[in-house]
């Protein structure tokens, strides 16, 4: 270990030591407000999420609000990913910089980082802010750091955050409740003079809106290369193999391409194993790796019985349509309605969908504080009674008073037999953050 090199790195990561300010963007992710109350508490804060979604920027913004002296270090460089380096950085920050808060970026690469932090946390009383692009190691560390760590997931940009980075604010900061149609209608009327703009930006958001660095980018080739090379390939060929044993990265990439092309469809492990010519256990493990790296997610068919949920086929989703578009090489002209429908559903996906033995299906089921909220995606302008029949069946079966129908540009409130369905354009539903943690208690960021 070259100590001079490490000291130089530490000082480069902390320009304030040389009297220079680190440039921090003024626009903050929504998650910042959830993290801020924890900055004055003793517990460590862990920020996890997909590559390039802004974890490092968020940490720098958090650093500006910490009291006392703080020190930042990143383990993104391969030669720094050892326990010896971690201990040196901690000792230098404490004894030389007199740091009371230490921020450690991409810490999941360091073996036994959780044991080291536990010792310094208990003996020195330090405030730690850590980040990682792999969820598994951060979550596994919660056993070693029980009661000492609060974990927050930084998702891809929401539609509101995407617009905010483009300098566009919408309505009031208060998000209308999904069950408040008059408030939703007021938001719609506020946006009506810019309706065409929001419709166009919604397509742009689908195409590139997951990542802060390319919000302003217009070149399709640049967008595709950024996502494919700096996100997907780095995760598949570097991040995941650095933590898990991956003998067939080609299968890992193939499974992700499959998820990208079939997002929001049912999947079966055995069928995928036959398709790729590998054991079912390999497929299950690789899907888990992709999920731990925040590239995919799955949903269960809703039932009050956990045993029934476990035995039904699940749905597979890419985490954001922009990643699927880049992986499959789509340009904007290919985003026609038959392609867009499943990806619009991807944006609203949650822990549950619903499907019965007669193959009646509702695309998304949220568990909210007020009860179940079913959501059906019909990304089309014309809506008929057949488009709402499964939604109404679910509402009757589960005694649910309200359902949401996500449309392309159709806005209406339908009432029948004391049941209501709100038909809401997809772009407006995203502005109202239907499907976000504010409406789905199962996607809360902190743990």
Largest sheet, described in full?
A: 9 strands, mixed
End-to-end distance = 36 Å
- Number of DSSP strand runs: 14
Unreliable residue runs: 437-447
Structural class: alpha/beta
- What's the number of structural domains? 2
Name the shape in a single word: globular
Question: Any idea what the radius of gyration is?
Answer: 23 Å
Q: What proportion of the residues form beta strands (DSSP E)?
A: 15-25%
Give the fraction of residues assigned to helices: 40-55%
Helix tally equals 18
Strand adjacency order, main sheet = 6-8-7-9-10-11-12-14-13
Q: On the 0-100 scale, what is the average pLDDT? A: 91
What structural keywords apply?
447 residues, alpha/beta, Rossmann fold, 2 domains, five-stranded parallel β-sheet, disordered C terminus
Describe the 3D structure:
The chain is of the alpha/beta class and 447 residues long. The protein has two domains: 3-154, Rossmann fold, CATH 3.40.50; 159-443, no CATH class. The chain has 18 helices and 14 strands. It has helices at residues 3-13, 31-35, 55-65, 83-95, 113-124, 135-144, 159-165, 181-191, 195-208, 220-243, 249-261, 269-276, 280-292, 306-310, 321-328, 337-348, 389-397, 426-431; strands at residues 44-49, 70-74, 101-105, 127-132, 149-154, 265-267, 296-301, 314-318, 352-355, 361-368, 371-377, 402-407, 412-416, 419-425. It has a nine-stranded mixed sheet with strand order 6-8-7-9-10-11-12-14-13, with helices on both faces. Strands 2-3-4-1-5 form a five-stranded parallel sheet, with helices on both faces. Strand 10 (361-368) and strand 11 (371-377) form a beta hairpin. Helix 9 (195-208) packs across helix 15, helix 11 packs across helix 13 and helix 11 packs across helix 15 (321-328). It starts with a helix and ends in a 16-residue tail after the last helix. The model is unreliable at 437-447 (pLDDT under 50).
